[in-house]
């Protein structure tokens, strides 16, 4: 018999223990009959991030991922979703493939990761070749994000790293700051703006920004959850989360 509430799908979702945005975002996009089951990746909340400490923190998160996956597997999910984007961009497109394969080989389940989900979203929207990127990260991580997008055939014209001071500090960034960053990144020389970083609250702002910028603005949480649903054959459309969810 199917799960009484998750009769269309049970998603096992892994997110850093410091992340307070991705869970409510995914739950807001959840269609009837799909349930999200969160497993926290232990993440010490560094209070003075820098290029060096950011990279060290990502390494710590990466070393704890499999424990979180093994934990969520006990509820017998039928699909896995990574609620952290940074790990999926390291090493470019090849690194993303290696990261995903490790998890799929361990669990035998399908998997959505942020980098590949964003690539799929860009392909679905079409006509996107030149992009700008907004992240809450430090420059060392933006370098990895740009490397991934270069590998999949995109040109990153410019990027902004907000350099948040702590892991929880990412969630403290307010919409006004993100709005100003989007305006600064925009220009006639780009086809879309991509936001990376799952603890940055952007899903609704990105949807609204598409209207006043007149081009796609893809929030990583939107792309990730959209990709997971479509990978499972769930094609429900949902208003309020941009063209991606409304049209594709």
Please tell me about this protein's structure.
- With 248 residues, the chain is α/β, with parallel strands linked by helices.
- The chain has two domains: 9-116 and 222-247, Rossmann fold; 126-219, Rossmann fold (3-Layer(aba) Sandwich), CATH 3.40.50.12500.
- The chain is 44% helix and 17% strand.
- It has helices spanning 22-29, 51-72, 92-107, 114-125, 139-151, 175-185, 203-213, 220-231, 243-247; strands at 9-16, 34-41, 79-82, 111-112, 130-135, 155-161, 192-195, 217-219.
- The strands form two sheets. The protein has a four-stranded parallel sheet with strand order 2-1-3-4, sandwiched between helices. Strands 6-5-7-8 form a four-stranded parallel sheet, sandwiched between helices.
- The longest helix is centred in the first third of the chain and has 22 residues, at 51-72.
- The chain starts with 8 loop residues before the first strand and ends with a helix.
- The model has no long low-confidence stretch (mean pLDDT 96).
């Amino acid at each position: 018999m199917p799960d009484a509430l998750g009769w269309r799908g049970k998603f096992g979702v892994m997110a850093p223990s410091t992340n307070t945005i991705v869970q409510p975002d995914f739950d807001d996009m959840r269609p009837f009959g799909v349930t999200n089951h969160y497993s926290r990746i232990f993440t010490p909340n560094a209070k003075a991030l820098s290029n060096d400490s950011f990279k060290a923190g990502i390494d710590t998160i990466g070393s704890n991922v499999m424990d979180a996956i093994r934990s969520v597997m006990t509820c017998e999910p039928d699909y896995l979703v990574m609620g952290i984007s940074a790990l999926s961009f390291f090493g470019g497109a090849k690194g993303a493939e290696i990261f995903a394969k490790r998890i799929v080989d361990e669990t035998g389940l399908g998997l959505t990761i942020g980098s590949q989900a964003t690539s799929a979203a860009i392909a679905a929207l079409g006509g996107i070749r030149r992009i700008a990127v907004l992240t809450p990260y430090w420059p060392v991580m933006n370098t990895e994000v740009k490397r991934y997008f270069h590998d999949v055939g995109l040109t990153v014209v410019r990027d902004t790293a907000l350099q948040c001071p702590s892991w929880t500090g990412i969630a403290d960034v307010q919409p006004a700051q993100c709005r100003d960053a989007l305006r600064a990144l925009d220009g006639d020389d780009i086809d879309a703006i991509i936001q990376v970083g799952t603890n940055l609250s952007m899903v609704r702002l990105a949807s609204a920004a598409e209207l006043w910028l007149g081009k796609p603005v893809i929030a990583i949480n939107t792309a990730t959850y959209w990709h997971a649903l479509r990978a499972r054959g769930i094609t429900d459309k949902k208003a309020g989360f941009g063209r991606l969810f409304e049209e594709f």
